[in-house]
Amino acid sequence: MRARVLIRPKEGILDPQGEAVVRALPALGFNGVSNVHVGRLVELDVEDESQLEAMCQKLLANPLVEDYEIQTVSS
Amino acid sequence: MRARVLIRPKEGILDPQGEAVVRALPALGFNGVSNVHVGRLVELDVEDESQLEAMCQKLLANPLVEDYEIQTVSS
């Protein structure tokens, strides 16, 4: 099964990459962009879907400062 | 409008983070995982959806080595 994990900085946690994007866009001529967050995307094939939650907790995300969302991808 | 951009290393481009995950998982007791790719996730509010493609080309992704996929998120 193909799975996709979306990992985002938690609400209230500093997001320097998001800040950098917000500041850079107007200089490039893009306006009307706000609320930018930059996170990570992990895509993987797993045999046992039930392990995904534990993988996120132990390796893929840092649960102290990141939230994650697991999606299954139909292939 | 809330948009989500999924950015992945292009096919054939080295993905050291994905390799690291593949190697680390068995040591943590997770087996049957393959084909792991680590990319970036950008979520943003945009007023003008038609600008997203250009933003990806110019700032959010590096089109030489990365593919990107734009999704709209219903809020």
UniProtKB/TrEMBL annotation, chains A, B:
GO molecular function: phosphoribosylformylglycinamidine synthase activity
Protein encoded by which gene: purS
Family per record: Belongs to the PurS family.
Pfam families: PurS
Subunit and partners: Part of the FGAM synthase complex composed of 1 PurL, 1 PurQ and 2 PurS subunits.
Main location: cytoplasm
The enzyme's E.C. designation: 6.3.5.3
Parts forming coiled coils: none
Annotated catalysed reactions: N(2)-formyl-N(1)-(5-phospho-beta-D-ribosyl)glycinamide + L-glutamine + ATP + H2O = 2-formamido-N(1)-(5-O-phospho-beta-D-ribosyl)acetamidine + L-glutamate + ADP + phosphate + H(+)
Subcellular location: Cytoplasm
Keyword DNA-binding: no
HAMAP family: PurS
Superkingdom of the source species: Bacteria
InterPro entries in alphabetical order: PurS (IPR003850), PurS-like_sf (IPR036604)
Keyword Cell inner membrane part of the UniProt annotation: no
Keyword list, A-Z: ATP-binding, Cytoplasm, Ligase, Nucleotide-binding, Purine biosynthesis
PANTHER family: PHOSPHORIBOSYLFORMYLGLYCINAMIDINE SYNTHASE SUBUNIT PURS
Pathway: Purine metabolism; IMP biosynthesis via de novo pathway; 5-amino-1-(5-phospho-D-ribosyl)imidazole from N(2)-formyl-N(1)-(5-phospho-D-ribosyl)glycinamide: step 1/2
Role played: Part of the phosphoribosylformylglycinamidine synthase complex involved in the purines biosynthetic pathway. Catalyzes the ATP-dependent conversion of formylglycinamide ribonucleotide (FGAR) and glutamine to yield formylglycinamidine ribonucleotide (FGAM) and glutamate. The FGAM synthase complex is composed of three subunits. PurQ produces an ammonia molecule by converting glutamine to glutamate. PurL transfers the ammonia molecule to FGAR to form FGAM in an ATP-dependent manner.
Name the UniProt record assigns to this protein: Phosphoribosylformylglycinamidine synthase subunit PurS
Organism (species): Svornostia abyssi
